[in-house]
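Researcher: Here's a chain I'd like modeled. Treat it as a single chain, no partners, no ligands.
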Amino acid sequence: MIVLNAWTRRSRRAVVAGGGLAGALGVVAACAAPGQGAGGGSAQGGQVKTPVSLTWLARTDMGPVMSDWHQKSAAAFAAQEPNVTIDMGAATSGDYNTKATAMFAGGTPPDVMGNYAGGFGTFVVNGWLDDLLPYANRDKFDLKSFETSALEAVRREGKLLGLPVGHNPWVLFVNHSLLQERGVALPPTDWKDRRWNLETLVKVAQQLITRGDASTATWGVLHPEGQMETQAIWLWGADPLNPQGGPEKSSAYQTGTITQVHYTQPKVVEAVQANVDLMHRHRVAPTPAEQRDFAAGWATPLHTGRLGFWAAGAWSLRNFKESAVPFKWGLAPLAHGLGATAANTAGLFNDAFHVVKGTKAAEAAYRLVAFLATGERAQGYTEGAGTFPANRALYDGWYDETLKTPGMAPSRAELRSVMEGAMATGFASPGKTLHRQRDIQSAFAQAFAPIRNAEQPASIGLREVQTQIEAVSREG
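Model: Modeled as a single isolated chain. Structure tokens:
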């Protein structure tokens, strides 16, 4: 039985055709890297000898640079061998999983997919992904070149269900100029420094705030909530999907299926209330309504120049390349929570490519995925998508380019400490692990609004969150 998201049945012609990237690229004759094996023809002398077609379901709403990357990647792959034809499917982030699910339901699934829009958990639950480990072992593929947590994000039960290309953590973006103007010390860049905790962050933020209207007020921090509030909760060494500890204790992040919900446990309540208190009690963070007015028209809230700390995914670095700021800024670790189990676990967001299980073009599909996840193609992806590389071989080039960003203040060593330290302490986010995560997030957001708006304390409001997440989980 297929476990389905909501989907609209479409014919293969309707799914694969269309404008945008698919219309620009169309059908591309292509082949892959050296190796040999069944499924799509034997590969002797480094070529797939038997003609085969494969469908690559590509995301088309990543901007013109990434549209160009898809086209050039397919063309470069085509130049290696003429016997594999790539049929480019097209989907935006919002409908990627719907389209993929419809293709599976219609009996014409793609051969290669990405894990956009919370899709990986659904792919795992349905058993849609092929194990790439036998191919990698056969070809002596150097998997150790990938960052450990990036590779673990696509491992399940000893199987390698894809190859990562990008990996982004939550971090704090810091307005160095504002902190220095107010005589406030910069935060550490070492994730292990436990002096950097929520209490310290509040004290620092209080020195930054000035009252005024939306055009003049200065705020201390926009702190992370994360998907389903998990980023705030993880800082307390807790998780809403188990009663024992942090996210590493929750089986749901491995299986994709939620079997228990614990939003009302004391540590979760404490973590959520502490995060909301930044807005409504300490007044160092703007409320949701104040945020809309404060940051309206700016590339990011930090771009206003009137915010000390902004928690966001590292992919937001591209905003500072595309829209320069006139002040010095940098990155820092998330602040630890409070209490004996305090942590600063960063949510990690993995971009990967996958081969669909049962494809008749398995060999060619694996080679395409390996081609995209390494070398020049992987470098192009990280640059175009604004993501941190999953492959360590690309780190130095990424640091070189990022340090050229206008206003970037940290040294190379400090930037490396923040980014690589996040990987060591981080954990794959719910959107990259849970089945039907978008449905779960939608139910969560509606139930959580009274807490965020200080209409209910966390101790009361999380009861409704608990009820709603349990209800969605029971739907399968």
